[in-house]
Hints:
Keywords: Disulfide bond, Endoplasmic reticulum, Signal. The chain has twelve helices and 27 strands.
Amino acid sequence: MQFNADMWSRRNPPLSIIASIFCFCVVDAIFKGIDDSVLFRIDWKMQSAMPERLHSIKSDPFSNQPFVFISSGNDEKYLCAVPDVSSQSKRKIESYSGPSPGELIRTLYEERLCSYWLDLYWTYELCHGRYVLQYHDEKESIRSPRTEFYLGNFRHEQTKMDDRGFDQLNPPSRKVDDVDLAYYPVNYRHGTVCDLTGKPRTATVIYVCRLDAKDQIYSFVETSSCAYEVVVLTRRLCTHPSFQPVIVPQHEIVCYARGAKKASAKPIALLALERERASSFEKEYSLIPPQSLHADSPLTSSLEEEEDEDDLDTTVILPKQSFPKDKPPSNSGEGSLANGVKRAEKRNPADNLETVLNENAEFLAGKQCLYGGGTGWWKYEFCYGKRVVQYHDDSQSGRNEILLGTFSEEIHKQWMRENPRKHPLKIDGQVLLVSHIYTGGDVCEEENIHRSVEVRIRCRPSEGSQSAVTLFLLEPHTCQYVLGVESPRFCDVLQLVDEYGLLPIPKSVRKTAD
């Protein structure tokens, strides 16, 4: 059990701290070094295990001793020894002679890579070392097919000046997935003039080390009027010791029961809570096919192996959308897919089946195909329940496309029966990933077989846009592909899949589905 100062009251409701102990002086003395980045676990022990020297300790709110007396709602009394973590400081790099963070990131500039972030209306394009662009393509309009604003442009000389004042041995940090990580900022200046401020737009790109990252955008926010912040996860920084994630030790709080007659060291209410959780877990997983209980390990390991074979082909896909001409688009995402994850936390999808399905109606009906592409020659088109196509648009010769696979429900079900580990992946009662097989693609000359693709639709929570979708295509074996489709927008709808991982089509579009 991990524990921090804030978790004490939230995760252990059976316990209440004796009021007289928690005066300001004791809080400052005992919990001085405790914050959300310091992890604790509680080890409950019987009174017989208490060291002799602790038997004589008295409750003293003005004492500087590292002990607290606590009591449960059932009047169970404990003496808890709290470790002193105030002497432990943040890791500090004294010297370093390797490439600077700017030099490590420069490889992104040299490869001319671009990363994308998709919102409901706007698409954001970060071309590393060149510019940050916000745009919208209006395919129905001939006169003004594209609206765009430059959020900032890269200036090599100004970046060199910024680097002179950057302390690479003590870089700033910020929370990413609730973990403090060091980052390297790059400023993009002189964007399109902002109507609100009368000044050019600016953007700061924050690079954070993550070993399994592929230079993807983690979040994209407007911090103030026409000033933007882009967080990019990349492994290019990870060779620099100052940017490597710090391994946080787990500290132990030992609580000794002060009643010799207690049958268990843990509080009664905590034991009841653990039994309730165990019973709930057993009921939940007794309904799941046995194979899916172990689906996490082989699925994760195989995916990691496949990703090693293609580590740069990551993109954000662009869904085909249209908006009423008399209703301007909203960036807030209110009443749309943008708040999918937040709603998923507050409601039971089964109670709002049609609502959940209608949010993704066009996608589930195969009418809203997901488009996009990476930094290479090929782009991708995914139409759910229909097909996966790899294509390239040429201004002179037109479109060249390769069919990677089409969907057949009968073939998919047979494939699922033959590959039980492909059953929907459940963790903590929530479906996080489903796999579908698309077969019968164009003939592969190298292997003399038809191409096929496994589509993996994953619930991927994000602090940024709840409608942004990430797509990546892998080729672990010649002409056999894996298409990853990840987004917060799928978190609700995945809870409605059947035993074959298939998503139901909403009634509102069932009659008109192709």
